[in-house]
Amino acid sequence: MRVTYLRGSVVGTRGERVEAEFLVDSGATYTFLPPEAWRRVGLAPRRRMRFRLADGTAMERDVSECLIELPQGGGHTPVILGEAGDQVLLGTVTLEELGLVLNPFTRELQPMQALLM
């Protein structure tokens, strides 16, 4: 299986910006940011949540919000404020909020097709 990385920007509430290379993880619910990125753009915890990793490990992390900008567009999204050793991930909540989906065959992001009923 091929892994997909995507370069983008994290923008804080005061306009501070940091570039990041995200691992696009269609199995991750939320986007994770490393501590050096979220601290540099001035993010602050808004709440704390409990998560379960794919291997069953439980952990708690703080959650905030920021602007994520990708070549395909940008928008505000909740983000997990990572700790040392946490992987930088682009999760499905962020992808959906940006109207994007990961094509499992080509491993590329593409616009989400809306269903009208």
CATH homologous superfamily descriptor: Acid Proteases
The CATH architecture is Beta Barrel
CATH structural class: Mainly Beta
What is the domain tally? 1
Report the order of strands and helices.
EEEHEEEEHEE
Mean pLDDT over the residues: 90
Which structural class do the helices and strands define? mainly beta
Rg calculated over all Cα atoms: 14 Å
Spans of 5+ residues with little confidence (pLDDT < 50)?
none
**Fraction in helix:** 10-25%
CATH fold annotation: Cathepsin D, subunit A, domain 1
Characterize the overall form: globular
Tell me the strand percentage band. over 45%
Distance between the termini: 35 Å
Major β-sheet annotation: 7 strands, mixed
Your description of this structure?
With 117 residues, the protein is mostly beta strands. The chain has one domain (5-111): Beta Barrel (Cathepsin D, subunit A, domain 1). It has helices at residues 35-40, 92-97, and strands spanning 5-11, 17-24, 31-33, 47-52, 58-70, 73-81, 89-90, 100-102, 109-111. Strands 1, 2, 3, 4, 5, 6 and 7 form a seven-stranded mixed β-sheet that branches. Strands 8-9 form a two-stranded antiparallel sheet.
